Structure formats: structure tokens, C-alpha cells
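Service request form, structural biology core

Requester: graduate student, group of Dr. S.
Request type: structure prediction, single chain
Budget code: on file
Notes: please return the result as C-alpha cells.

Sequence provided:
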Amino acid sequence: MDPIYVTGHRNPDTDSIVAAMAYAALRNALGDREYEAACLGHVSDETQIVLDRFGFQPPKRITNMYTQVRDLDFDTPPILSGAVTEGRAWKVLQEQKNISALPVANEDGTLYGMLSREDVASYNMALVTLGVLEAVPLFNVLSVLEGKILNEAGESTDTIEGEIAIALPQSRENLLFNRKKSVVFCGHQPDMIKRALDMNVNCLVLCQAELDDEFRSYPTTTCIISTPFDAYRAARLIFQSTPVERICRTQDLVCFHLEDRLDEVREQVLKFREHCYPILDENEKVAGVLTRYHLLRPRRKRVVLVDHNEAAQSVPGLEEAEILEIIDHHRLADIQTTNPIYVRNEPVGSTNTIIASMFQDRGLMPSEKMAGMMAAAIISDTVMFKSPTCTSRDIRTAERMARIANVSLDELGKEIFSASVGNKTARELLFADYKEFHIAGHDLAVAQITCVDSPSMLQRREEFLELMRKVAKEKGLSMVILMLTDVLLEGTQILYIGDDETIHQAFNATPRENTVFLPRVMSRKKQVIPMLSALWG
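Core staff response, request fulfilled:
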């Protein structure tokens, strides 16, 4: 069963990471075992402190939701070794009615070539017309002829080759075999057997006949083989002993990888129009084969979104995925779905407050460690309950989770917000909690750093502003805002790149040198984005 990824937004904060883990744990506990927590970016130091505190590993990191080759119901036929006989390969092709070609692999599993029915037919026609067997391993010949070695010379023979000849009556000299490099087929014909052994032909195939004792120790270099088939059939079958590595196509192969996007694959299929394409994994080993019919009904990846509902903040390729649910506490944005889905959006300070209610609704108590993480996430997102987004329900839920986990909220909060930021680069700090928005024709980004000593962070003001100018230019943004939210001061220092008048009108404050302090402003979601939205209409 393909996983259902539960993921928060890009540049995830603690609430986003823990919400994904908690909801996946809830669904899995209820028997829906395919739910898997995921994240879209680097786990921050604050989040890592929470994960380490309660003994959890970070969730799996995913980079996109594009439909890939791995999402197709492609075929997985037997993968042949290059040493396999043509006869065995043909049998496999006949069994695999829906497969037009088989992959041939090297010893390490990497692709050697592709073998189609047309390859086999063309090779057989050429060989039968020529009537000469190229050197093939003795074991291959024994396999296709169901043969046995009858003399000592055969035990020291490794390859069989030569002109194919069926022994005819000796009275017709012009029809007799007369070359040492021959493979002779005969029945119970002592005169023909003796002639072949005296000539030291490469191989004598005895068809539906016993070998007289006098010939078993006959002085010769000829390999003697017995077969249950008649001479006519055996003479045809022996060509099927050729290793497929000589027959299969090895040049100009078009391959796809499991990670290849479906739209790119479609373009290649339309361009080359092959019947069958080999599929390789990340180690270049053969994983299966693809035909154009597999492209008709791909399986879309499935995802549950938590702590966001805006395309710009979500996983790349979301438009190609199937969104099953959205659980969030932000404004409704621009994500669209093809089918009705379950949406739970509530005006609380933390997504984990909503998920705790979902545990309650389903009559399930989170584990002690999970409850501790959820309490930490609520503290983080409500800035120790000082954010204007915080509700009494957030406080009650955090207290309940703390009781289940047997932890102190005050100590937990101090541990979270005392995370060192002094040794981080400006880029690491800016993108730790960075979100982009599109509001009334304006493209902007708002990053937030929650700290307990904003004056020391302001000493790096020029470093931050220079980086923000580069980001604005690279991404084509009209404004970039950095919120230095101080838990102790209960306010936020705003650093910004953009129009001074916009900041002045939106927050009723006079900026100075791209900086302004906003007392009692703690929330990006409730106190910054709404003010800009109101200003721009």
C-alpha cells in the first residue's frame, strides 16, 4: 500500500512537525497503517530540542509530490542474465504475453540490453539460413537439447561450434559432412558415428539412439552428446543455445528512472515511440519495464496537509497529488481539490490543539511522549501563551498534555526558547520559519525568529537586510519582512525590505532605517498578514 504523507508547510516550525507526527500516530493507532509523517524542510534547532527531549526521530523529508515513474503500475517481468539461452528467454517471452521485451542485466543487476520477440526471430532466421552455430557454451547446448555427455572428450569440451549437418547415407558422398568444424546429428548409424569420430568433428549429437560401447572410449577429440529429440528437431533447437547477450539490443536504449516525473516521461515516449522501456532504480539496477499504456492511469500520491492550506507554502507538485484532508488554523487560501475532502480549520493558536481534540473525538489518549511533544508545540506556536492567537482552549489543551506527559510547561517553555541562535548564519535564521504570501497582487515573504534577547539580534541588522535584499531580487518579491519576536519584551522588532509607507500605514508606526518596534505584536498570522491584507484590500 502506498503511504499517505502527512506534512506541514515548507521551512517547518515545531507546530508543523509535531502536528504531522501526531496526526499520523492517531490514524495509525486507529488501524489506518499507511499514514506517514513527513516534512518539507530542515528541522530547526528548537524542533530538534523537542524531538530529543521526548525521544523521537525527525519525520521523513520529502521534496515534491510530482507523479513519478514509481507511481505507475509498471510491469516487473523476470530479469534475465546475459548468459541465459535464447530458448529459455523465448519461453519466458511466451509466458509473459503482455510484455514485448525483457530486460537483460549484468551480473551486478545493471542494465545490459533489451530482448524482444523481434530480436529472437531475426536472429533465428539469420542463423537457420546460414546453417552455422557460433561458439556457444556446452552447458547451453545440453540445456536446450536435454542432452547428456557420453565420452571423455565431452568432459573436457567447453564450447560447441561449427556447421550444422544431419548425417545421411554414405552412398551420397556429396551430401556427407566433410569438415572438422561441424556439429553432426545422427541416429543409430555406426558408419556415420565412426566417420565423425575419425574426422574429430567438433560435436556429435546422437538422436534417440544408444551409443555402442566401442565408441565410448574411441580415440577422438569429438564431444558426443545424446538427446531424446529426433535429428530434424535437434538441429533446429541447437540454435536456441545462443546466449541472449549476443541477441539483445544494447545500443541507443531509452531508459527511465523511478524518480523521473511523468510529464517528462510522456515527452520521451512520444519522441522515441519504442514498444517497451527499461526502468532503473537509484542504483541503476533494473526495476521493471514501461509501456505507453502504463501512462494512461497513474496512481497519484496522497497527502494530508496540516498547519497550512496555501499552495506557495506547500510541497512542490501538490497540484498532481490527491489531497485527502486539511487540518489548519490559518486563513483559507488558494488550494483547490478535484473532490470533496475533509477540512478542519479552527481559530486557535496551534494546530496541535485541534489534533488533541481529534484524539478526544475518537476516544484515544495520546502516548505520554507524544503528549509531551504536543504540549511543547502549543507553547512554541503561542509563544508561551502570549501570542494574540492564543485561546483559552490552547491553554487548557497544553495543560492536559503536560499532565499526561508529566512535564512542567514553564520548564518546557524555557528549554524551547533558550535555544542558541548566536552561532547560526543569517540565512539559516531567516529561512528557519519563512513563508511567502500573495495578497492582492503583492508577492511578499514574512520570516519570524522567536527569541528572548532581540537587542542582540538587532546587532546583525545590516547582515539581515543585505540578505533580505538578495532574497527579494532572486524571488521577485515586493517586500520581505523579518519579525524578531521577543518573548520577554512581548513585542516584535520588524526588519523589512520594501516600501516605508506600507509599513507606516499597515502598523501605524514610523519606521526608521528599515526597522520598527511593534509592542504586543507576537503573531505573523493574526497581527502582520491581516494588517497588510486590509491595507491592500
